[in-house]
Amino acid sequence: MVINNALLKEMAASCGIGQLGVVSAAPLLYTHRRLQRRLDENRSTPFEENNPAKRLSPATLPGNYRSIITVAIPYAAPEKPMPFKPDQPRGKVARCARGIDYHRLVEEKSFQLAKLIANKSTAEISYRVLCDRSPLLERELAFKAKLGLIGENCTLINPRYGSYVTLGTILVDREIEPEHPAPLKKHCLRCGACRRACPTGAITEPYILNPHLCLSYLTQASGIFPRELRAKLGQKVYGCDCCQEACPLNNKVESSPYRELAFSFFPAEPLLHAMLTMTQKEFKMTIELTSAGWRGKTTLQRNAVIAAGNSGNKTMVPLLTRLLQNDTRPVIRLHTAWALGKLGGAKARFALGKARQNDPEDSVKKEAHKSLLEQE
Question: How would you classify the pairing of strands 165-172 and 127-130?
Fold first, then answer.
């Protein structure tokens, strides 16, 4: 049985999926060298599969899949932050995390489509829906399916919604009638705007990204944030849109059809004080419902502490002092010592002096010592 392509697109539209493409499940052998270079140059992360063979084909996954349906769904998130008075220090949240968790949206829409396909079929169909939870190269599959071009900053840029899209895949064990989509009208301008906009130089050359310099990755990585990059984080508490905002191809893109789902569980510019004092219950009712929620409260509060230090606003000193003295998490106290050092002043120095002497963790004592030395 071969699935009719026209019917597939009709069913996708009924599910609210407007950007869809299909490719065969044949291995993406041409990407093997690129993946191996990534490993050789130590540009892989704990978030990804490091065996190139498992990334090239669904053959390594359970099931005899023959076709891959790729979908691109624009973020269900506010495009612009609400205007606020600059009376209290605020953080910055990347567009992908401002609304409902995009994983849920993509998976829900994809499951709807997969079930329609199964119901229309005269034979039993096996399928699997994936979004950020498989080793497959979703971006490369979307590019092959003509859903967008790949920019110098390594993002897929969709003709309608720019790079503000989330990708998902539906693996099916049936062939889908081949289509021959027209070539994309746009291509990466190779203007270098994204590379110049990156605060850390993470885009080391066109189409090459070093995640260990990428602020978006670093805001998600747990543990100690690299000291030499903390000042470059600025006010960011989750993600980084600098390279996307600089891309000319993201100008005048269409608004997301999912705007009605864009309730700000995680505001574009959250109050840092509120982030640093929120309870676990408050976290579960707000940020945990977004794509940032998987990272957990501690890592996001670590980022908020750094943002407070970068804010230059000394009204944060009393709260940071309390965190340094009373918080039970060493990673929070360590970054708080750094932030107090950035803000400076007699009260900050006094708190740092006490931490240098009394904190139970050597790493926190060393951070407090460094912060004191930098103020002398």
Answer: antiparallel
For the cut 80, the answer to whether the pLDDT of residue 7 exceeds it is: yes
d(CA 316, CA 31): 48
CA distance 288 to 233: 22
Report how far residue 159's alpha carbon sits from residue 257's, in angstroms, rounded to the nearest whole number.
15
Residues 27 and 165 in one domain: yes
Strands (E), 20-66: 20-24
Phi/psi zone of residue 16: left (φ > 0), alpha (ψ -120 to 50 degrees), beta?
left
- Written as six digits, the tokens of 165 are 């899209």
Comparing CA positions, the residue from 216, 220, 17 lying closest to residue 114 is 17
- Whether 253 and 162 have beta carbons less than 8 Å apart is answered as yes
Do 238 and 279 fall into the same domain? yes
Here the tokens at position 368 are 């407090």
CATH value at residue 355: 1.25.10
CA 122/CA 27 separation, integer angstroms: 28
Strands (E), 4-147: 20-24, 67-74, 92-93, 127-130
User: To the nearest whole number, what is the mean pLDDT of the chain?
Assistant: 91
Q: Which two structure tokens, joined as six digits, stand for 248?
A: 């000319």
DSSP one-letter code for 184: P
Q: Which residues are bridge partners to 209 per DSSP?
A: 203
Is residue 66 a contact partner of residue 173, using CB atoms and an 8 Å limit?
yes
- The answer to whether residues 333 and 265 belong to one domain is yes
Token couple for 317: 């000193």
Q: Which amino acid is at 262?
A: A
- pLDDT, tens digit, 9 for 90 and up, residues 295-339: 999 999 999 999 999 999 999 999 999 999 999 999 999 999 999
Largest CA distance in the chain: 78
